[in-house]
Amino acid sequence: MEATMTVERIVEPAFTLSSGPVDAYPAVLRALSRTVLYDFDPVFQHFYEAVTDKAKVALRTAAPPVILHGEPVLGLEAAAASLIARDDVVLNLASGVYGKGFGFWAKRYCAELVEIEVPYDDAIDPAAVEAAFRERPDIRVVSVCHHDTPSGTLNPIDEIGRIVAAHGAYLIVDAVSSFGGMDVHPEACQADIFVTGPNKCLGCPPGLTLLAVSGRAWDKMKANPDAPRASILSILDWENAWRRDQPFPFTPSISEVNALDAALDLYLEEGPEAVWRRHALTSKACRDGIRAMGMTIWPAREAIASPTTTAVRVPDGIDADALLATARDGFGVSFSSGRGETKGKLIRIGHMGRTAQPLYAVVGLAALGGALRRLGANVDAGAGMEAALAVISNQ
Amino acid sequence: MEATMTVERIVEPAFTLSSGPVDAYPAVLRALSRTVLYDFDPVFQHFYEAVTDKAKVALRTAAPPVILHGEPVLGLEAAAASLIARDDVVLNLASGVYGKGFGFWAKRYCAELVEIEVPYDDAIDPAAVEAAFRERPDIRVVSVCHHDTPSGTLNPIDEIGRIVAAHGAYLIVDAVSSFGGMDVHPEACQADIFVTGPNKCLGCPPGLTLLAVSGRAWDKMKANPDAPRASILSILDWENAWRRDQPFPFTPSISEVNALDAALDLYLEEGPEAVWRRHALTSKACRDGIRAMGMTIWPAREAIASPTTTAVRVPDGIDADALLATARDGFGVSFSSGRGETKGKLIRIGHMGRTAQPLYAVVGLAALGGALRRLGANVDAGAGMEAALAVISNQ
Amino acid sequence: MEATMTVERIVEPAFTLSSGPVDAYPAVLRALSRTVLYDFDPVFQHFYEAVTDKAKVALRTAAPPVILHGEPVLGLEAAAASLIARDDVVLNLASGVYGKGFGFWAKRYCAELVEIEVPYDDAIDPAAVEAAFRERPDIRVVSVCHHDTPSGTLNPIDEIGRIVAAHGAYLIVDAVSSFGGMDVHPEACQADIFVTGPNKCLGCPPGLTLLAVSGRAWDKMKANPDAPRASILSILDWENAWRRDQPFPFTPSISEVNALDAALDLYLEEGPEAVWRRHALTSKACRDGIRAMGMTIWPAREAIASPTTTAVRVPDGIDADALLATARDGFGVSFSSGRGETKGKLIRIGHMGRTAQPLYAVVGLAALGGALRRLGANVDAGAGMEAALAVISNQ
Amino acid sequence: MEATMTVERIVEPAFTLSSGPVDAYPAVLRALSRTVLYDFDPVFQHFYEAVTDKAKVALRTAAPPVILHGEPVLGLEAAAASLIARDDVVLNLASGVYGKGFGFWAKRYCAELVEIEVPYDDAIDPAAVEAAFRERPDIRVVSVCHHDTPSGTLNPIDEIGRIVAAHGAYLIVDAVSSFGGMDVHPEACQADIFVTGPNKCLGCPPGLTLLAVSGRAWDKMKANPDAPRASILSILDWENAWRRDQPFPFTPSISEVNALDAALDLYLEEGPEAVWRRHALTSKACRDGIRAMGMTIWPAREAIASPTTTAVRVPDGIDADALLATARDGFGVSFSSGRGETKGKLIRIGHMGRTAQPLYAVVGLAALGGALRRLGANVDAGAGMEAALAVISNQ
Prior knowledge:
4 copies of one chain form a homotetramer. By secondary structure, chain A is α/β, with parallel strands linked by helices. Chain A has helices at about 25-30, 40-60, 70-85, 95-110, 125-135, 155-165, 215-225, 255-270, 270-290, 320-330, 360-375, 380-395; strands at about 15, 65-70, 90-95, 110-115, 140-145, 145-150, 155, 170-175, 195, 210-215, 310-315, 335, 345-350.
């Protein structure tokens, strides 16, 4: 037989620097292994209310948030299905794959979808939103992705929120991969439904959604005859489920709630500002390292680069999949690929939760630089790591 | 101030003998605390395929089952939404709260719902199914709950399956709380969609659905323009997601899959037959104890009593909530209440996974007997425990 | 080949009702899985001091206790080696295998060993201690085992302590298996060295000793040229190791200290009195059940029966090993055997930490009764369980 | 109030790169959280034998090794106390703090101690051992530390072993911090007692010793009337304790044995050669980085540098404690200090078990370089990291 076979034993990565699922905090992993309680046991019912309270503190909302029992795509689909009524005109703001994707759901439920789309390395201009309202004053719902993870870019959510509020429309914000890693909160951006999850910057595994819902959003959903009820997609079913004396519409994901509890404790005990600083510092070190190495970040400009994910443009002549595989096999680091339109064009280094620690930027740069060189690219990994270290040293 | 206040510290139960969420196996809890991997990491992709393979072995199907990332209500709703087309006539078999409940979902998607309903302490008679087909040969889909947990009763699923198959209709089986605790399998009962979950007899926390789907069910779903796609409710999206070289439609619940992996190992290593024996023995000991204590099981006859849950009729003059609270506070045991129509009429002692150990029947009887006596009922707890022990001793 | 082989798969017990190692609390197991820190890391050094402080609160001593890094036999041997000088006359009080055993260590280090020995189902009479001092006023050290676990009997430690103190002698107390399960503390019994461990009533795995040392015991050890130094047997080496700014003489058992931390939290948060009540209630239920079943507890009288272990006399005609094996294989319960002189004469049901929950008494009685009957004994298991339940119900 | 207070919250290190206690493998942490079994339960007794078997495979010995229940200082002291008889002449080889330290124990038990001591950045010359035997043919026991961790240096253990064997003397080897990280085994170096532990390169927490004992060492210990018996220091007590049908002399550290089991699985499944390669590569990358950064490793020459610890000379003008504190506080990395004579002169970067992953060398260099610069040293951190990456890239 001429053919040779190479059977390689695949080992777990030494470092997971993805933009989600993320390497969960050790304390979260331990919480996952807590005894599983019956959901109607009084201890669990009190506990669920207490976790909801902690989430409220973390989200800085006046009203208790809703926990949905599926990863945040559930929350996003549920938001579209619940808030958007069949006669609504929806303005969807698309600056990336996730923002664009939300439009498909919005279209499913609305009368008409209006869209502002910008290149996927750029951000929505609030002026364009203002202009859209001038042109279509009948816009009732606006949807926007704060951090479009597949691009590593941020949208100016607070400005957009002000415009939407001024026009009396409803705002759906996808802050799944930014909340917990920077200063973004539902009431600050005047979101009517603010969707996030514990599985990114809070350092949990995927499995839950956190939803902050404004009073007027509750009213609109209740008035919407098509809003899901008696369904996994229902937000309404869960309105009062956080109360210790109320039943759950269906069985909550006990262990994921245990994990969320631990993650919220970590977040609140370290202090949100301290957590955000870690994310900011790690990403700044990473970006400076990328540039010093001779590479380019994906976002069109520094100001819109996310502190929780650094998207790096794959150099000409390099295959993105080969780059990821080399970083993984040769250096033990698992990065995220691009997704949809950005797939093949960039790779992503996550800085979320546990890995939002400055030296992980150096780890990421080492693996990226080493992998690129193996593939023949001419990058100065040493300069990159040095630049990252300089940022960290001067913190 | 005259009033006195009693502030009691609520402590976790010493024993959780619920019919779900259940006290998970220790090895499952440890698996939950495994490192969280990036879902596109090659190790996770291989792992996911391997877990699917194990689930296939456990389910005894020829084709790989589907894992959905929400507890089994997701799987049930998804099955209704996907398999039932708008021109279908559906026969729903209701012998309890869950069976009846499925009818509401079926009605949402079908042209016409036909229903056979029996009292909730009884089981569906296969002859009635046969009769329904004679009357309505246009029935295309039949849905049935194998173990209607809120009643602790079983339906004759294999006989029903034969009839449905003979008429060329499609069969949806809810075996959520029976699979893993007794000899019930998708192909044996000729189910087209067989919905179960790891969170009952397999001893996992809630968070996933396991679905076995027949080839003709795949075809029917694909032909159904209304079958959910790009949705949390989609089964179709996940058809090939188990393959190591295929992407996930959205992020799977990594830690729950880790738990499922451990639970399947436990199940297959102990041996399904041995696991079922534990469930059968524990429930038999419990039922004999209940009767010897002077109480009555809820199912109309022994033959339809589930081996995974013993539903016990609450004696006249006793308040079910007070009974549960007394067992919990005074004896440290968390039982399940009834649900919907059975709420207030029965309490349930679960025998699932870890708690399907014969002596847990004695624990349950002690707590139940002790609590009943505190509430003034005249029960012979000693005779009950003695009868249970006799069953165990004579195994 | 004619012979048939029965290969039985040995499975883990469903219940561990031993008198040590005990089934650890779930929170302790989770603490064991905490990240392992470098012992000179400032967080660990602060943590170690904090754990010592908690142990001090639990032991109700003025001075910080010493943690030794081996299970309590290390602490006992170290106490003998350190406190007993070569010219000391030692009075050893032996009411069981462990008390007797300590005499062998004492003899190794002292000038002369005087011993009071009583039958191993009885307790030391304080009057005998008083008499010994009259006869031998040169007794310098007295050693006594509070709870002689292999007998399940208690010695009147507070009275003995008063007598020893009145004579100016030093007292070594082995309270390994009683502390944490009842009201026994170093200063209350005037112990100079009080040896206990987290691995019994505190619900930890074995691996550490807790030592409370009086000021005069420190002085005596320092003055003893033979007291171990630079040795695993040294107590002196660890005098200041609890201070965050002091080095450890050798590497402490990090994970065991993590477990101890969690166990002390559980103990102090539930409240020592509440914990003792659980132990007392469980053992009372067990003893009453044993008698109602027609069996006899090992201790000569109820007053000296330990609340943390119920030693049960094996009926005539029954083989103790067969009894243990039958309870284990047939009923899934792991009991403790006797030890040394009591081996073969009794079996022991532990009530320690997690298993000091009243219904575990019923579990133990069921397994014991069932096993005895299988072996042909005529016991009334139902009456036993009923009697235990009556105790629990009337708490 | 004039005084200002700075209360800093101390957080856990992001990276523990110590030379022990080491950051344990996640699978080891999970094993620590296994259910605690009664040591005389048949499952535990079988398990203990199975773990001993795995340890035998890992140690590559013909006879089962001994597990002692305390961290390796226990094993070292026990080896001295057991093997060295009061009329023995002992040759102790001291090339570092630990080697020297063993001499103190040896002296406690022997007739005469002969010592070869070399500077603590150097290694023992086998020729000197040969010369010592010529001068003192009555040497009966030779003791040597393979990897003197406080220096990060290795001794030529195989050559020394050959000489000792040729002279018919007994050899005690301390391989605590090298076994598992490189090719060193008891029979290969002809050790009579080979002391190691799971808490270094096997990635467990501290708490156990592994001892390989030759047949003639067993004979010598048995013939030694002073060899500890009925003591924590006894090796003899444990000779047969590994057998499933033999009792334990005292309670083993159940959870630590669980951890050892998992660690041995990891070691044997990855393959010892692969594990050693990781250690070698990581340390090589680290050493090359140190030099490229403009610093000096502590060992006098590359050939004697340990693959499991890189000891780095602290530059003139830099305070070692300040350096460690800066790396810890400013960069989140916990390194080891020197110890005894090497304290203040070097810092140590551990490469053991989980942290023997090439990119951890980069992490260590980043923290070290960054910290040195903060303290005013002129080091080229970028060049250091680049050099390390070059080693990794060219593997």
